[in-house]
Amino acid sequence: MRRKVTYITLFVTPSLALAAAGCGASVTDPDGSQPPPGIASVAISGGPAAPRQGDVVGFVAEISDTAGAPVDGATASWSVLPSSAGAITAAGRFVGYTPGTARIVASVGRLADTLTISITERGAGSGRGPNARFEVVGSGSATRRYTSDLWVHGSFAYTGTWECRAGLCGDRMHVWDITAPSTPALVESVIVDAVVVNDVKVRDDGTIAVITHEGSSDGLNGVTLLGLSDPAKPNVITRFTSELQSGVHNVWIDGNYVYAAVDGFGNGLRIIDISDPSAPRVVGRYFAGSSFLHDVYVRAGLAFLSHWDAGLVILDVGNGISGGSPSNPIEVSRIQTAGGQTHNAWYWPAAGYVFVGEEDFQAPGLVHVVDASDLENPTEVATFRVSGATPHNFWVDEEGAILYAAWYENGLRALDVSGELLGELDRQGREIANIKYGSGTGCVSSTETCTWAPQLHEGLVYLSDMNTGLWVLRPNF
């Protein structure tokens, strides 16, 4: 119900009122100031009476003078009671956390209006319900070395290898035939000079792959370009090391360019022209001025750099917004998400969001949601947290609006990212399903779940697991 009141007393203690504010809004102490001269009433309008948990809705505070006319420039403070029910911004944008009755309060001094709403469960009517789950379709065992990242293209999956396990180090990329997803078959391994092959990417046309080198015995590190004319038996085209000697942690292929995240402070990004894959050359460079570059994601002529404590950096590398190109990358903007340790990013242009992973093993980390609809002014709007472990890489099913997040010993999580995103997503009933296919108590062991990366491919989710190799899951939702 909605009521219009003048000079009411809010029956909350000052401490509760301040805690209820959320997202920067506040409630005035009942013993606080009179409303500004000329203001006689405040009334809430807009917004549904029964918003769904996790859906963002807008309320408006109509502030009037004694004649009932709007007061130009006047603003209200917003709050929600109880504070656990949801969050509301200073602009009256509300998102519900806890199903049940809640009160939205708009106040100007000691003037206030209260609107009672009923928050409904998010799963109601979604068609997913409590039976949404992952089904294990199959797996491919690789336990002699730790597995790193993966990329799936066509009927093959490619996985890297990481560090040393029982004396065997990460010096190879594995090739898996996934024609039968229930029984992935390890059919080939490409061996290189490395201790870590952290990343592997395949170009969209399926003709070229790139793998990274760290810890090479000759100290040159770099990347190796592979030809995929026979995707089951990749052939080495060339190893490229110029300006990459300190090691390459992650890469991206976009057309005729490889974007390489080079290890160490001061190195940053190298953009490599591979139009002649037998003779690559560095054509572009970028460093954010602090910290180090961990990962790079390229889409729509933009490069999204996960630059650790320097934050998420957006570069124009052909988009046109700042006149940049691969040979002349130009910074569009940057944002330091709360917590730092910016590990990876996924840009979803249609929704205007960037999903940013924070790899913090102490806190632990979480997923940050950045609104990049205005690329020159990105803002953090939401987070998603899972207790007990930190996230790693993820993949977004944009058609289905589902984020698949690898979460190390917490396995794989599927998160509903439909609609507008605001606040703490883990309190909004948005997690669709999760799975730990092993014991899930710790990473870097023999059999426990340690999920590194997911990829959705032809309706199935393929996972690289550090301990056990390759897994294939069916999302039943």
Give a description of the structure.
With 477 residues, the chain is an all-beta fold. The chain has 2 domains: 14-119, Immunoglobulin-like; 129-476, YVTN repeat-like/Quinoprotein amine dehydrogenase (Methylamine Dehydrogenase, Chain H). It is built from 1 helix and 39 strands. The strands form 11 sheets. It has a 5-stranded mixed β-sheet, with no helix packed on it. It has a 4-stranded antiparallel β-sheet with strand order 9-39-38-37, with no helix packed on it. A hairpin with a 2-residue loop joins strand 20 (248-254) and strand 21 (257-262). It is globular and about 80 Å long. It starts with 13 loop residues before the first helix and ends with a strand.
> What's the CATH H-level superfamily name of the largest domain?
YVTN repeat-like/Quinoprotein amine dehydrogenase
Number of strands: 39
What is the mean pLDDT? 91
Poorly predicted residue ranges: 1-31
| Top-tier CATH class of the largest domain | Mainly Beta
Shape label? globular
Instruction: Classify the secondary structure makeup into a structural class.
Output: mainly beta
Question: What is the number of domains?
Answer: 2
At the fold tier of CATH, the topology name of the largest domain is Methylamine Dehydrogenase, Chain H
Number of helices in the DSSP assignment: 1
The rounded distance between the terminal residues' Cα atoms is 36 Å
